[in-house]
Amino acid sequence: MPYLRRYVAMLLIAVMALVSLPVAAAQTAGLVSTQSALQADSAASDRERINDVLARADVQEQLLAQGVSVDQVQDRVASLSDAETRQMADQLDQMPAGAGGGVIGALFAVFIILLVTDILGLTNVFPFTR
Amino acid sequence: MFSRLPAKRLKRLRLMTQNARPAGVLASLLLLTLLLGGCAASPELRDSSYQTLPAHAELDDVPFYPQEKYQCGPAALATVLNYSPAAQDASRNAWTANNAEATSPAEHSDKAQDVTDNDSAEISVDSLIVQVFIPGREGSVQPEMLATARRHQRLAFPVRPTFDALLGHVAAGDPVVVMQNLSLPAWPMWHYAVVIGYDLADETLTLRSGETRRQTLSFARFDATWARSQRWGFILAKPGRIPADVTAKRAVDAISAYEALHGAKATLSSWQALSVAQPQNAMGHFALGNAYYAINRLEKAAQAFKHAAAIDDTLGVAWLNLGLVYQQQDNHREARSALEKAAALPGSWQQQARTALDTL
Asked: Which residues of chain B does A34 touch, with a Cβ-Cβ cutoff of 8 Å?
């Protein structure tokens, strides 16, 4: 996997360099896009763009590792905004994943605590407390 | 026989001493939760909310998709994606593109076509599962909830994290997808549900949640579970509609994310609606200018950039783009004056403005 990432990075740098050559020549007429204006830093925008592409590759890798199907993963990553992609790349592991109703490790003590907090109105785990 | 008895007794004794410590921990935890009991107090609504909000609201037409296993994310998404209220288009505070300046007839028919296409097809929970569920996490994460709505031609606006805003959206006709932690932070039970109604007198919320079509929760209990996600939630709108009470920054971010996925042409109506709903939002006018430019309507683009610069004189990027548009129209005099404004403003776009001035 690290090899893959390095390979992708090198490929990206090459592509970006090639693509930016003709663009740089005709750059004078290009307007500033809304997306880059929102990032609000033109000096860093090229670097930012490479980082964004790398972050997307990273998120894609992580989602595949988490069992998302191959034919879906590209569309899923493509529909994320830049900010969302960065957020996912940085902290997918710690991000809360809404599942709704998994049974929590069947510790009796935990059961009692949650029962009490439910009755107190602090949590909403057991429907029968209402 | 005889030798086994003491062993049994010993075991029982050991069990008792083992249980003693958890029992102590349990007792202190109970005490702690009792002390924390004050946190379960009802969230305080602003006085103005009591005055302006209707005492009772419920969006009965919001469909219900019971969740299977861990799939509350796809179920909540299906609930709001398949809700298209007839009343909402003409709704009180929301702005639609029809209110905005008229687009050309060709664009209008395009848009009408898009809308009918979306309305006819129901979006199934199964189709959403493959788009938003992460098997390894047995759940769905927040960014992908927003992104998936975008894939289905909806703009996703995160809501302001306050109870007043939540009730305000429901009162304005927008069901709100919320993220809750039903349990305690130590043993989280993350859950997505859809708030569809409330009652101020009873202090209760009504939700489509999990396997319950109409769940009623007290304000206090709901807010305790919602606060654990930093009161995260979002509402959806079709292109061309800006829901009531969305902040300037959140609106621009949401529309811009939609534009990055679907292109300027599909997003123009939303920028138009924003320029009417939030006439003082300079970034909104700037973005409208870019969308016009992308579909080659330079006249309109220049007008929007000028508008943005008029609202915020220090928005260098608006002056810069205005100058560049004038330059393309061979209007060198106006181009120079706009670019000089941009070049005089310290900031990220100064250098680019100077370069453009040199080539003029």
From this structure: 252, 256, 259, 286-287, 290-291
